[in-house]
């Protein structure tokens, strides 16, 4: 198995959380590597609110995509707990992962939600869908929704990113033509 990750590069179509530094949402959660704790984050004080961010297309070579994982780094500022779940946007529709959490730690904790299939098609993800070249069933955005607030606490998200897990071509595999013919030796002429 191989993996590739993508971090936010633009605001998404849903922006119901507040950036602690003002400005664009994605800048608050786009860390590569370690998260920056409370230096930058998005926050929300009530349930049922989500934000989404755009990610650049994946660039993989695979005949089999195993899953898309959305990883978040969250904490609660308050005495209670908050549940949350990862979200993805496919063709303009938001889909939820199973519930994560509760985010009941005063320290940031990493959580994740898996999407084993494309929720729009109920089929395995295709390379074109994760590379955003399918044109119909593309993975467009990733996000998070807060749920289960119990009493004035604030949920904070300091990092979010997407990981695709896929089967990479075998080392030394030869490229194949559209009819499955294996190319060997030098080639010249039109394809």
Walk me through the structure.
- The model has no long low-confidence stretch (mean pLDDT 86).
- Helices cover 4% and strands 47% of the residues.
- Strands 1, 3, 4, 6, 9 and 13 form a 6-stranded antiparallel beta sheet that branches. It has a 5-stranded antiparallel beta sheet with strand order 2-5-12-7-8. A two-stranded antiparallel sheet has the order 10-11.
- The longest helix has 4 residues, at 25-28.
- With 191 residues, the chain is mainly beta.
- The chain has one domain (2-167): Galactose-binding domain-like (Jelly Rolls).
- The protein has helices at 25-28, 127-130, and strands at residues 2-6, 10-15, 18-19, 42-44, 49-54, 64-77, 82-90, 93-103, 109-115, 117-118, 123-124, 139-147, 154-167.
- A hairpin with a 2-residue loop joins strand 7 (82-90) and strand 8.
Kindly report the CATH topology. Jelly Rolls
Q: What helical percentage do the residues reach?
A: under 10%
How many alpha or pi helices? 2
How far from one another are the termini?
31 Å
Identify the CATH architecture: Sandwich
Largest sheet: 6 strands, antiparallel
- CATH top-level class: Mainly Beta
What's the count of strands? 13
Global structural class: mainly beta
Summarize the structure.
This protein has helices at residues 25-28, 127-130, and strands at 2-6, 10-15, 18-19, 42-44, 49-54, 64-77, 82-90, 93-103, 109-115, 117-118, 123-124, 139-147, 154-167. By secondary structure, it is mainly beta. The two termini are 31 Å apart.
